[in-house]
Write a structure and sequence with these properties.
Length: 223
């Protein structure tokens, strides 16, 4: 049995800690308006979240029949610009997230972020929400040469936190694959952007309520 002082809790961001899909949809649609193509709806946007901003833009443009590499490449800087300009406070934490995170820090856990979101919007969200003091490691989609589901971003965050025990928390197929590749237990948040049934994803435990999360961590350590 590991203790809080020995354990790093590393979190995905989009769809796990924050409901960012509405913002991503609005950012993408600002670009789509310029390109005079049909806007995305929220369900479509959620289906594209997870593999990073470049993949999201490529997939969403392809859904509108825009697959010319030169057009996609030219659109990405505009997408990034709009993303950074958008008010980060429009990204809403799921209910109970902040209280759960602060309770876990108070118990002695080390917290980290491992996200495929680019660094500028990740930093903007963390700062705007007042979470700067919570995370001892933040690995973004552009921090390394690889991103999730490659296990290296998760392993890098874990190494930076200097703990001996790791638990990863995410919401998606990519997070499940990352955890499996890193040989880390996954606690699966079921209210995010997952496309598959819960039972189809390998995970140690699943939860839908952040107010119950600290108790779930304790149960995971005791198992």
């Amino acid at each position: 049995m590991s203790t809080a002082a020995e354990t790093a809790l590393i979190f995905d961001l989009d769809g796990t800690l924050i409901d960012s899909a509405p913002v991503i949809m609005m950012v993408a649609n600002r670009l789509f308006e310029e390109l005079r193509i049909k806007p995305l709806d929220l369900a479509e946007t959620k289906s594209f979240v997870g593999s990073g901003a470049a993949a999201l833009l490529e997939q969403s443009l392809a859904s509108r029949g825009v697959e010319t590499p030169a057009i996609v490449d030219a659109a990405f800087p505009r997408f990034e610009k709009f993303y950074v300009e958008f008010n980060p406070l429009e990204n809403k934490p799921y209910p109970g997230v902040e209280a759960a995170l602060r309770a876990l820090v108070a118990e002695g856990f080390a917290l980290g972020l491992c996200t495929n979101k680019p660094t500028p919007p990740t930093k903007a969200v963390v700062e705007a929400l007042g979470w700067d003091d919570l995370f001892g490691a933040v690995i973004c989609g552009d921090t390394l040469k690889v991103r999730k589901p490659d296990p290296e971003p998760l392993r890098t965050a874990f190494a930076e936190l200097k703990r001996s025990n790791l638990i990863f928390i995410g919401d998606s197929e990519i997070d499940a694959e990352t955890a499996q590749a890193a040989e880390a237990p996954l606690l699966l948040f079921t209210e995010g952007y997952r496309k598959s049934p819960v039972e189809a994803l390998p995970h140690r435990a699943a939860f839908s309520d952040w107010t119950a999360f600290p108790a779930l961590v304790s149960d995971t350590l005791a198992a």
